[in-house]
Amino acid sequence: KSNKMNNIAISETDFLQYLTYVLTDLRYIKKNETIKLSSNLNQDLGLDSFEISEIFSLLEDKYHIDLFEIIPGTIHTVKDLYNCVNAAKTHNQKIFAQFTYKQSKQK
User: Fold this and answer.
1) Is the distance from CB of 19 to CB of 78 less than 8 angstroms?
2) Res 80: pLDDT
């Protein structure tokens, strides 16, 4: 895990491809269904909180990150999820804090 490649940001295209693969594999979406960054996880993709937490787990394994601090309900769109994963991967605490308990304590 000490490989410097682990800290490199994920491209939007790669992220969307992987997320599409995961959602299709889990049968949460139909084959050939298009996922956009603007897609709402609940309203557009029909994902519930259990399914979203399952996706978190798969993203953690794929990208070697920890998403355990994420507050349920702070991730609404695929773009939110992408930003959160990238912030965790690149150790961008400012962006990552928007989705975590640390941010809610500052309010």
Assistant:
1) yes
2) 96
CA distances from 49 to 2, 75, 82, 101, 106 (A): 32, 10, 17, 17, 25
Through-space distance between the first and last CA atoms of the chain, rounded to whole angstroms? 35
Is-contact 94 60, C-beta < 8 A? no
The H-or-E segment that residue 87 falls in is helix 78-90
Q: pLDDT value at position 73? A: 84
Give the largest CA-CA distance in the chain: 42
What whole-number distance in Å separates Cα of residue 65 and Cα of residue 32?
28
> What pLDDT, in 10s, does the model give residues 36-94?
999 999 999 999 989 999 999 999 999 999 998 888 789 999 999 999 999 999 989 88
Residue entry with tokens 């937490």: 53
Q: Are 75 and 99 in contact (CB under 8 A)?
A: yes
E runs forming strands in 1-45: none
pTM of the model: 0.85
